[in-house]
Amino acid sequence: MGRGRPRKTDPEEVLDTAMKVFWNKGFEGTSMSDLVCATGMAKPGLYACFGDKESLYKKSLTRYFNNLGTPLLDDLKNSTDALPVVVRRFLESVAYSMLDKNCPSGCFVVNSLVEGSSTHPELETISKEYDQKRRDIFIERFEKAQKNGEIPLNIDAKAYGEFFSAQSLALGVLGRADACKNKLFSFIDVAMTVLPKP
Amino acid sequence: MGRGRPRKTDPEEVLDTAMKVFWNKGFEGTSMSDLVCATGMAKPGLYACFGDKESLYKKSLTRYFNNLGTPLLDDLKNSTDALPVVVRRFLESVAYSMLDKNCPSGCFVVNSLVEGSSTHPELETISKEYDQKRRDIFIERFEKAQKNGEIPLNIDAKAYGEFFSAQSLALGVLGRADACKNKLFSFIDVAMTVLPKP
DNA sequence: ACATTAAAGTACCGATTGGTATTTTAATGT
DNA sequence: ACATTAAAATACCAATCGGTACTTTAATGT
């Protein structure tokens, strides 16, 4: 163990809590006082641990993407399951995430994309980056599907990949507007009809 | 003409400008000073004309919906064109709105839905109300289409209506993330493949 | 001309904002 | 026992926040 006074709060837990506050209220809607109250870490502690508000927000968004986004993307990229299976599983996982009552509503990346603070352009950059990663992996998977013969050669694999990637944006907004499980899942059912038979 | 000193700025123009500022930067991200600078109307004038910040935001969002949303919804509701024609026209109109360089990016209703200020619950209520209106009209149109034989009877008209209504949410986020015309339109092309033949 | 009306403009209010300097507390190494 | 380390806690900063009281200006009605 280190030398000085022991930490009252685990920085990982603090970051997790801060993530949820930003996710729920946005960058502009969250004050440092909000974060102090929610995390239990005093203001100077937050600054010492995570830097200024913008830096803490970036770390929160990165944590969100790594913890909640990356597993879904890895599955989409690496699973050997058929295209309709992996695509549906991705969208349903997003839907389940929308319904998790231990987390704020919606998708933090979508919230951040939409808030798009003009006074803090770096925040827009990072959320666009994560949005792009999802898009790229969807496109890759659809191009692979075309090579595999899972979908016909005469369709625009890139456009289809982008379409399904964008369905998670719609789910993010629907989740933010308190859509129930039935609505989210019947939305996915309809979206899945886009997938052409091979 | 009235009695007192003439207005320097037309309240309609002021509201139009305020709408664009809120649309661009959100409720929490916009300060009264921002609005004073953008509109040219001094702060006491804004309060006298529109009430407090929350009230001005509501009027801005209502103006957005009436001016930009209602015409599209009226067309969707009243046009005698075939289902694929009116649906595509609706989505393409949304896409063109995303590309209008005289307006902020994205859709103000989507932005407002996603920001969803927890400290000002009325703002969430009104954006959800406008979102619901679009959904209702889409569902109506799909139910009508089913009666007309434009789509088969064995599909879930409500789910299809909600699906296409939600595509404008996706377009709103895509527009916010600076999607270009090609991406928006090929997105719509793919979405339109959902429409079943009669 | 002059009172009346209403908007513009200035100056200000307490509260809160993001951020920090300083002190106090609690552990460890010697 | 005591210096050292590091975090907690308090107190504070200038700037900005949403909102308002007050003064000034420019028009109209008589």
Describe the fold and architecture.
Chains A, B: This is HTH tetR-type domain-containing protein. Chains A, B: GO terms for molecular function: DNA binding. Chains A, B: Keywords: DNA-binding, Transcription, Transcription regulation. The first copy, chain A, is mostly helical. Chain A has a domain at 58-191: Tetracycline Repressor, domain 2 (Orthogonal Bundle), CATH 1.10.357.10. The first copy, chain A, has 9 helices and no strands. Chain A has helices at residues 11-29, 32-39, 43-50, 53-78, 83-99, 108-115, 121-148, 157-176, 181-192. In chain A, helix 4 (53-78) packs antiparallel against helix 5 and helix 5 (83-99) packs parallel to helix 8. The longest helix of chain A is centred in the last third of the chain and has 28 residues, at 121-148. Chain A is elongated, with a radius of gyration of 19 Å. The relative contact order of chain A is 0.12. The model of chain A has no long low-confidence stretch (mean pLDDT 96). The interface between A and B is large, with 42 and 42 residues. Chain A binds a DNA duplex (30 and 30 nucleotides) through helix 3.
